[in-house]
C-alpha cells in the first residue's frame, strides 16, 4: 500500500470530508509561489505585490498592499494598473510547478480562488482535465455537464479587468455588485468544508461572508481548515480566532505560505 508522507497531519474528520467530496479548496496568492518561474524572477505574494506597486508611486509611504494598489490606480489609472500587474505577475512566462500539477490531479469538482493569474487553468490543461472558470454571475445558472473542474474566480482575473477585485473601491462594492456570486459562495461554505491553501484570510469581502455564516449557523457552521507549513503559535492563534483550524505541517516553509 502506498504511504502518504504527510497524511498523519490531517484530522480524520477532514479526510472523511475529502473522500466524500465535501471539501472546498480556496486558493490564495501564496500558492502561486510554487510556480515554475524564469531565472532571476520572483513570484510575488499579496504583500510583495503591494510593495512592488508602491515602489512606482512618488513620495508614497507603504502601509499595506490594498492601500498601495488603490493609490496606484487613483494616480495612474486602472488601465495602467492592469498592465503593471500583468508584468509583475509574470503572465507571459510563469508556468504551473510540480505542486500545481499535484493539486490538479486531486479529485475535486469545485475550486475557489482569489488569484488573478491562470496557473490553475494551465495546470488542469496539462493533465489534461476540462476546466471551466466562473467569472461573472450570469455563468452561475449554466450547469457543468462534463466531468471537469469548475473554478470560481472570486476576484476575477487579468483578462477581465472590469471584474477584477483589486482596489478599496472594488472590495467595498463587492457584495452590492455581486450579490448572487456572494450567495453562491455562501452556499458552498454552508455545504462544504473549506480548506484554505496559500491564504491569509485578509480579504474583506470573504470575511464578511464568513462572518454572516457564523452569525446565522453558530456552532453548526462547518469546520474550516487552513494548510500551513511551519506555522508559528501567533499565526495559528490568529487563524483559530476566526474559526479556522490550522493543519500545520513541519517542513519547507517556502511552500504554501
Describe the protein's topology.
Elements: H1 12-19, E1 23-27, H2 46-54, H3 65-76, H4 78-88, H5 98-104, E2 110-113, H6 119-126, E3 131-134, E4 149-153, H7 168-177, H8 179-191, E5 193-197, H9 204-217, E6 224-229, H10 233-241, E7 244-249
Helix pairs in contact: 2-3, 3-4
Q: What are the defining features of this structure?
A:
257 residues; alpha/beta; Rossmann fold; 2 domains; seven-stranded parallel β-sheet; 7 strands; 39% helix; 14% strand; DHS-like_NAD/FAD-binding_dom
In CATH terms, what is the architecture of the largest domain?
Answer: 3-Layer(aba) Sandwich
Number of self-contained structural domains:
2
For the record, the CATH class of the largest domain is Alpha Beta
Mean pLDDT: 89
CATH fold category name of the largest domain? Rossmann fold
The spatial strand order of the largest sheet comes to: 3-4-2-1-5-6-7
Please summarize the sheet with the most strands: 7 strands, parallel
DSSP, total strands = 7
Distance between the termini: 30 Å
Summarize the structure.
InterPro entries: DHS-like_NAD/FAD-binding_dom. This protein is of the alpha/beta class. The chain has helices at 12-19, 46-54, 65-76, 78-88, 98-104, 119-126, 168-177, 179-191, 204-217, 233-241, and strands at 23-27, 110-113, 131-134, 149-153, 193-197, 224-229, 244-249.
Amino acid at each position: 500500500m502506498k504511504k502518504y508522507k504527510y497524511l498523519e497531519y490531517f484530522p480524520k474528520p477532514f479526510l472523511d470530508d475529502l473522500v466524500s467530496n465535501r471539501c472546498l479548496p480556496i486558493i490564495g496568492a501564496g500558492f502561486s509561489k510554487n510556480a515554475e518561474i524564469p531565472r532571476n524572477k520572483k513570484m510575488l505574494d499579496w504583500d510583495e505585490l503591494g510593495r512592488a506597486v508602491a515602489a512606482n508611486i512618488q513620495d508614497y509611504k507603504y502601509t499595506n498592499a490594498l492601500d498601495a494598489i488603490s493609490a496606484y490606480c487613483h494616480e495612474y489609472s486602472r488601465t495602467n494598473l492592469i498592465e503593471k500587474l500583468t508584468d509583475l505577475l509574470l503572465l507571459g512566462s510563469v508556468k504551473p510547478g510540480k505542486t500545481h500539477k499535484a493539486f490538479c490531479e486531486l479529485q475535486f469538482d469545485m475550486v475557489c480562488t482569489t488569484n488573478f493569474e491562470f496557473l490553475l487553468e494551465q495546470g488542469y490543461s496539462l493533465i489534461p482535465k476540462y476546466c471551466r472558470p466562473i467569472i461573472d454571475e450570469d455563468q452561475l445558472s449554466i450547469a457543468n455537464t462534463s466531468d471537469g473542474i469548475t473554478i470560481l474566480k472570486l476576484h476575477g482575473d487579468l483578462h477581465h479587468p472590469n471584474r477584477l477585485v483589486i482596489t478599496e473601491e472594488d472590495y467595498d462594492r463587492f457584495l452590492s455588485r455581486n450579490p448572487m456570486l456572494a450567495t453562491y459562495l455562501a452556499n458552498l461554505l454552508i455545504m462544504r468544508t473549506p480548506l484554505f491553501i496559500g491564504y491569509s484570510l485578509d480579504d474583506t469581502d470573504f470575511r464578511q461572508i464568513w462572518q454572516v455564516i457564523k452569525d446565522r449557523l453558530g456552532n453548526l457552521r462547518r469546520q474550516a481548515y487552513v494548510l500551513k507549513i511551519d506555522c508559528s503559535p501567533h499565526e495559528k492563534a490568529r487563524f483559530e480566532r476566526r474559526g479556522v483550524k490550522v493543519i500545520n505541517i513541519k517542513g519547507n516553509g517556502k511552500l504554501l505560505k
